[in-house]
Amino acid sequence: METIHYVTSLLTFYLKGSIRNEQNFIKFTEPNTVLGLIPLGSKKKNVPINQISSVTSNFKLKLLKLLLGVVAAIAGFAAMFSKGGFIGGLIILIVAVNWVLDAFEIQLQVNMTSGRSKLIDFFIFDKNKAEQAEKQINALISNRLDDTNTREQTNRIVDAIGNLKGQN
Fold first, then answer.
1. What is residue 113's DSSP assignment?
2. Please, is 110 exposed, middle or buried when counting C-beta atoms within 10 Å of its C-beta (0-12, 13-18, 19+)?
3. Hey, which residues does 105 pair with through a beta bridge?
4. ∠ CA 100-104-81 to the nearest 5 degrees?
5. In this model, does residue 2 exceed pLDDT 70?
6. CA angle, residues 142, 24, 110, in degrees to nearest 5
7. CA distances from 129 to 10, 16, 85, 125, 137 (A)
8. N-terminal to C-terminal alpha carbon distance within the chain
9. 4-61+105-148: CATH topology
10. Which listed site, 1, 38, 145, 151, has its alpha carbon 20 to 30 Å from 64?
């Protein structure tokens, strides 16, 4: 599995999360922020591949965030065109655009065999990275299942013995 780096927000485009495979673990790293703007470390989680039961990606619309973004955008435009409020209105408008874009998100859900799940939010423009992560993690799960499938292992042994008999 190749490492996947993704953006979590438009305003913090410089902070990236990552998903990678190391030996028998999937390692998730997500940036932490204060008020969605100030970086403050990161969350890290290591999950053994044999503890992952499935992975799905979903498109989600956060209606409240979308509505707040639209209202804030209107307020930002109004403030920009009022006397002496251009800079304040511009800041409000930037935050409003971020809210509107953050309202549309792709969510990668990693389900564990314990019944718990890990949710990873992707910025809407990183949809292909969420789908890529889903495919790669599902491939790792499939490989693990093939490795532990005794019928498959027995078939390989029988085929190998048959090949040896055919060579003699």
1. T
2. buried
3. 60, 123
4. 10
5. yes
6. 60
7. 16, 12, 39, 9, 12
8. 40
9. PH-domain like (2.30.29)
10. 38
Q: Enter the DSSP assignment of 62.
A: -
Q: How many other CB atoms are there within 10 angstroms of residue 148's CB atom?
A: 10
Alpha-carbon span 21 to 95, nearest angstrom? 35
Q: Quick one: average pLDDT of 77-103?
A: 88
Residue 93 token pair: 């408008």
pLDDT at site 153: 62
- Mean pLDDT is lowest, of 32-41, 55-64, 65-74, for 32-41
Percent of the chain with pLDDT over 70: 91
**The two structure tokens encoding residue 116:** 């718990």
Q: Which residues contact 28 (CB under 8 A, 6 or more apart)?
A: 17, 18, 19, 43, 44, 45, 46, 47, 110, 118, 120
